[in-house]
Amino acid sequence: MKTLHIRVMLVDDHAIVLEGYRRLLEKQDGFEVVAEAQDSVAAYRHCKELQPDVAVIDISMPGRGGIDLCRQLRQRDPSARIVVFTMHQGAAFARQAFQAGAKAYVTKSSPPMLLVTAIREAFAGRTFISPDVSEELARTSVEANSSALSSLSPREFEILRLLLETKSVSEIAAALNISPKTVINNHYLIKQKLAVATDIELLYLGLRERVVDPPRPD
Description:
Elements: E1 6-11, H1 15-26, E2 31-37, H2 40-50, E3 54-57, H3 66-76, E4 81-86, H4 91-100, E5 104-107, H5 112-123, E6 128-129, H6 131-141, H7 154-164, H8 169-176, H9 180-193, H10 199-208
Parallel strand pairs: 1-2, 1-3, 3-4, 4-5, 5-6
Helix pairs in contact: 2-3, 3-4, 4-6, 7-9, 8-9
């Protein structure tokens, strides 16, 4: 039986994490890491130049985040196969990742071999979700208002995530390469879609949906 040869791009803003990914995959038969990137700009460039079979992408990165990168890569190539590998266990992140075009979603707290499995499944065109996220998706699907954030587009969700991280309008505009006016308009539309009147209500919703973590005590 012929061994599959899967060319992988790794995207994460932490160099030590990239090294860990690479070492894990180098131990497996049939994997080749052809590119590494620490931000979305470099990742998009590598994808255009090297056309990896599978991109493994983190969500939280400086500038454009992983979900918006998924959207951008799928716009360029509708057949792009993407694995999101992240610390975020919240169902809202998983739903948005799949809406943006990801084929697999795995948390960094999962056993390492689940990432290997996810890459193989994505390469084969199949969906894969790590068990902890599957449980969260199942739990939230039966709760009231569980789909509140599903009404947002991947771009709107990325703007929401950056707003909840207290990024300024100019910072968000620069990160996503859009105008400040577009950020302001989207901010208003996001609140309309989520039926909240103030930024405080938006923050509470973000905390409830685990889009942002509560502040840790000093």
